[in-house]
Amino acid sequence: MPDFDPQKPRYVLSIAGKDYEVEGTFGLIEAVEYAIKDNILSVAARCPGMAVSDIARLLAAILNASGEKTSANAIGNILWNDVGITTEAYAMLCLHVHAFLRITMAKPSERAEVAKQMGELLGRPDSPGLTTSDSV
């Protein structure tokens, strides 16, 4: 994982044992808003309690904006079959997506502090909250 760059916050999302490096950009925000049909502020706030189909669309938008070509259907099948939608791993994934969106939305000068806060939220006070695999 590269050093934290507040201009392009990076995060590693682990989904069913595979790590995906995602990058917070304006293009990612546009992709998320288009996929979910809601503004990014609302999406980030709702993320931990979203319906599985919405999480699948959200993850597909995030991954596609970060260069990983996939579909909501493919991600939904992974969540359903490999992660399990009633598992702690699924709940933690949703929290990590929330954390990544919060970091992305922060002003560049505040992103390192928000990353630290998100790391604390996820139980990793010594972590800037940059990887899901290190936070579980």
How would you explain this protein's 3D organization?
Helices cover 54% and strands 9% of the residues. By secondary structure, it is mainly alpha-helical. It has one domain (10-121). Strands 1-2 form a two-stranded antiparallel ribbon. Helix 2 packs antiparallel against helix 5 (88-105), helix 3 (52-65) crosses helix 4 and helix 5 runs antiparallel to helix 6 (111-121). The chain is globular, with a radius of gyration of 13 Å. Mean pLDDT is 87; it is low at 125-136.
Widest beta sheet: strand line-up: 1-2
Please, what is the average pLDDT? 87
Strand content: 5-15%
Helix-strand pattern, N to C? EEHHHHHH
* End-to-end C-alpha gap: 17 Å
Number of strands: 2
**Rg from alpha-carbon coordinates:** 13 Å
Question: Structural class, from secondary structure content?
Answer: mainly alpha
Helix percent band: 40-55%
Tally of distinct domains: 1
Largest beta-sheet details:
2 strands, antiparallel
Spell out the blueprint of helices and strands.
Blueprint: E1 10-15, E2 18-23, H1 26-36, H2 40-46, H3 52-65, H4 72-83, H5 88-105, H6 111-121
Antiparallel strand pairs: 1-2
Helix pairs in contact: 1-3, 2-5, 3-4, 5-6
Question: Outline of this structure?
Answer:
Helix content is 54%, strand content 9%. It is mostly helical and 136 residues long.
